[in-house]
Design goal:
Elements: H1 5-33, H2 39-65
């Protein structure tokens, strides 16, 4: 099954730009405003999501390039 190019580009942008930016924003605001959020589990979760999406996109890229 091929991943449509438009979906691939949206997911890639989301993974490379949006997720790291949101993680940085949450971390920075948590520190600046003393929200007391458990920041380590939150950032670990963001990292795991980014890694998962990156792996899926990598596999999709390899399988699309092979056809």
């Amino acid at each position: 099954m091929k991943l449509p190019h438009k979906l691939y580009e949206i997911l890639r942008w989301f993974n490379w730009i949006v997720l790291p930016a949101v993680a940085t924003l949450i971390s920075g605001l948590n520190s600046a405003w003393n929200w007391g959020l458990p920041i380590e589990p939150i950032l670990t979760t963001f990292g795991a999501i980014e890694t998962f999406i990156g792996c899926v996109l990598g596999i999709a890229k390899i399988s699309n390039d092979g056809e």
